[in-house]
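Q: What structure does this chain adopt?
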Amino acid sequence: MKRALSFLSLLLCITIAAAETRFPIVPYPNKLVEGKGDFKFKTQLLVSFPKVFMTEIETLKVVFLEHFIQLNPSDKGNILVKVDSKLGAEAYTLDVNQTKITIQVSSGAGLFYAFQTIRQLLKMDGTGNYTVPVCTIEDEPAFYV
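A:
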């Protein structure tokens, strides 16, 4: 009986650990809805964004280049940044599907946090593609400085 309980406990721990590794985000977002599949790309992400975020995109280019990923501005990007003035200053929503990523923010701080979440979700598959799991995330800091 003890062995059976130990085995079930171990199985439960492994299951929980496996579920958490798909979304290794720190700090964990306020709301995360998992989808099926992955957004895949090689080494370049095309970003469509309002020009007000040019400074943030230039900073993020350097951050993503550390992962050998180029962020390039484009009118037809596979990452689409939209302004949602109803969101808090550091809040963001992130909608990842198999063909594109949509980010909604009200400020540069929210954009930075959204891209940090994407960076944490990046994985490489066995074919040389980067992947980001399909999901919807809504987040904002619990504490403001």
